[in-house]
Design goal:
The complex is a heterodimer of chains A (about 325) and B (about 260). Chain A has about 325 residues and is of the alpha/beta class. Chain A has nine helices and eleven strands. Chain A has a domain of about 180 residues: Rossmann fold (3-Layer(aba) Sandwich). In chain A, the strands form two sheets. Chain A has a seven-stranded mixed β-sheet with strand order 1-11-10-4-9-8-7, with helices on both faces. A four-stranded antiparallel β-sheet of chain A has the order 3-2-5-6, covered by helices on one side. In chain A, helix 3 packs across helix 4, helix 4 crosses helix 5 and helix 7 crosses helix 9. Chain B is mostly helical and about 260 residues long. Chain B has one domain: MetI-like fold (Orthogonal Bundle). The chains are: A alpha/beta (about 325), B mainly alpha (about 260).
């Protein structure tokens, strides 16, 4: 297992190209350097050994192929006049394009808060988060959330919910409907287009929520314990379906969970967090082959070792405890 | 084909009405009091009122004021309530004002309003407006406050601006609660309509009622009470139909059994 300590100040990572005023000639010289830098282990950024597969031809916008950069982010909530609750303390993290990254930790470690900061729903107390080199100032259609609570629009049918995003982006009704019907089919809800959310089970609602978010083509999926409210059976089925969908069209996914199995099963990289204050303990590359099939993976000793090792690490920590 | 239980359910309101009229008739015959006409007397007076052109004009004028007061109140109160529900600052500003106005019977303001605006339509419409506003504001406020944050975030991620989120997410999400407030408001509109006409005697259904009372035409008084009551039932039934259509998506799938059987 390649577990590396995630040092402070991962902003030491190459970011020469964030400066957009750099001339093309200078960029051309810098790009190969950056590529090498992210490929070598500089101890600061954690790059999956297989990340080279996902590095697309380097463009000027994302020379290091990091789509999300979180730089020394802290979040303090004022719980009472005297006491502050430090939800996140000095978090730095780089997320590669097209990677499936899970944030794993016990409840109260601020993992959802971190996701909300990337979503632009919450502003950090200090530090900065960037998406594609741009500072995050608010929510945007480039980052699509999927919440544990589904948050569907109950006055809209399944089709109405899925069409909402495309329609908002000005896509013509007929075209939006055709796309949405295809997505509803993809998440396995063909025939339920005209149902209202109240008529659906929890698992079906989460399928609709996923389709609704995919419908406006976000570059990053932000999933906030999406299967946390579902029963074990439904949960497993949705994990399988999510992997199938993701392996077809790899988007960057930031996936918050407190389930070790789920994190290892789905992810390329697991970010382990500890609580009070919320910090990154470790970032672990999950080097398991894809496409992953549940029945094969559960028998795979490498998978089992990841799960056991991560659970042991949570056990050893006196602050975190085992995530449920 | 209807089951016996279903037929009983259908017939129950009719039976209740007939029962009430029978009790009324018997009590009136027993008491032999001039100011308590028989049910038959009151009912036979209804066609006289509805057949009289002047009375009809008066009743329609009342309904027009009621519609205007109710409509204006709804148009102002829903946006205000929604804003209060989503903005702590706006709520903090308006809440104390509303708390002061809330317990005051709106009809009690009528004399002052008459002093300022006269006894005409404007004063009466204003009183109806005040009577309807508070429940609609309150329910819109509660409805907007209860809207799930994540739903608004989902909308924001799709690119909806704050004003669009208020109109296109908060408003529909709070609609069931808003319409509950409007239903209360509708009944209050009818009540304030009659009381305003009782104080500012000039025209309207309330005026007919209290003029008849002054002249000792008790069967007309009771006939007017029946007419006003029937208007209330009809308006409420129409509103309930509209409401049920608008928020079909939020109703429970199966009706809860109301009986103990």
């Amino acid at each position: 297992m390649k577990a590396r300590q995630n040092g402070r100040g991962s902003n030491d990572a190459p970011h020469g190209c964030e400066n957009e005023s750099l001339s093309g000639r200078l960029l051309a010289r810098l790009v190969p350097l950056n590529l090498r830098a992210s490929g070598t282990e500089d101890g600061m950024t954690v790059v999956s050994a297989r990340s080279s597969e996902w590095v697309r031809p380097v463009t000027q916008q994302d020379p290091a192929s990091a789509i999300i950069e979180i730089d020394r982010v802290s979040q303090v909530f004022q719980t009472s006049a005297r006491k502050d609750h430090v939800a996140l303390s000095d978090i730095s993290l780089r997320i590669e394009e097209r990677a499936f990254v899970s944030i794993l930790g016990p409840s109260g470690c601020g993992k959802s808060t971190l996701l909300y900061i990337v979503g632009g729903f919450v502003s950090p107390t200090s530090g900065a988060a960037k998406v594609k080199g741009q500072a995050i100032k608010g929510p945007g259609p480039d980052r699509g959330p999927v919440f544990q609570e589904f948050a569907l629009f109950p006055w809209k049918t399944v089709l109405g919910n899925v069409m909402y995003g495309p329609r908002q982006q000005g896509i013509r009704a007929a075209e939006a409907e055709a796309q949405s019907r295809a997505l509803i089919d993809m998440v396995g809800l063909k025939g339920y287009e005209n149902f209202y959310p109240k008529e659906l089970s929890g698992g079906m609602k989460q399928r609709v929520a996923l389709a609704r978010t995919l419908a406006y083509h976000p570059e990053v999926l932000l999933m906030d314990e999406p299967f946390g409210a579902l029963d074990a059976h439904t949960r497993t089925r949705l994990q399988n379906d999510l992997l199938n969908i993701w392996e077809r069209d790899r988007k960057t996914v930031l996936f918050v969970t407190h389930s070790v199995d789920e994190a290892v099963f789905l992810s390329d990289k697991v970010v382990m967090m500890s609580k009070s204050p919320g910090r990154i303990r470790q970032v672990i590359d999950i080097d398991l082959p894809r496409p992953r099939r549940r029945n094969e993976l559960l028998l795979d000793p490498r998978y089992q070792k990841y799960v056991v090792d991560i659970e042991r690490m949570f056990d050893e920590s006196d602050e975190g405890g085992v995530p449920a | 084909m209807m089951s016996p239980a279903g037929m009983t359910k259908r017939a129950a309101p009719v039976l209740a009405c007939i029962g009430l009229l029978v009790v009324w008739q018997v009590a009136s015959l027993a008491l032999k009091n001039d100011s308590f006409p028989t049910a038959m007397g009151a009912i036979t007076a209804i066609p006289d009122i509805l057949g009289d052109k002047e009375s009809l004009v008066n009743i329609l004028a009342s309904l027009r004021r009621m519609a205007m007061g109710f409509g204006a109140a709804v148009l102002v109160s829903i946006p205000l309530g929604l804003l209060m529900g989503r903005s702590a600052a706006i709520a903090a500003f308006f809440n104390p004002l509303l708390m002061v106005i809330y317990p005051v019977p709106k009809a009690a303001l009528m004399p002052i309003i008459m002093l300022w605006l006269g006894v005409g339509d404007i004063a009466k419409t204003l009183v109806i407006f005040l009577g309807v506003s508070l429940p609609v504001i309150y329910h819109s406020f509660e409805g907007a406050k209860a809207v799930e944050e994540k739903m608004l975030w989902s909308g924001a991620a799709m690119g909806l601006l704050p004003v669009q989120r208020l109109v296109r997410i908060v408003l529909p999400a709070a609609l069931p609660e808003i319409l509950t407030g409007c239903r209360t408001g509708l009944v209050l509109a009818l009540i304030t309509m009659i009381t305003s006409e009782m104080i500012a005697r000039q025209s309207g259904a309330g005026n007919i009622l209290f003029n008849a009372l002054d002249m000792g035409q008790y069967d007309t008084v009771f006939a007017m009470i029946i007419i006003v009551g029937a208007m209330g039932i009809c308006l409420d039934a129409i509103f309930e139909r509209v409401r049920a259509r608008l928020v079909r998506w939020s109703e429970p799938q199966f009706d809860m059994p109301l009986s103990f059987s």
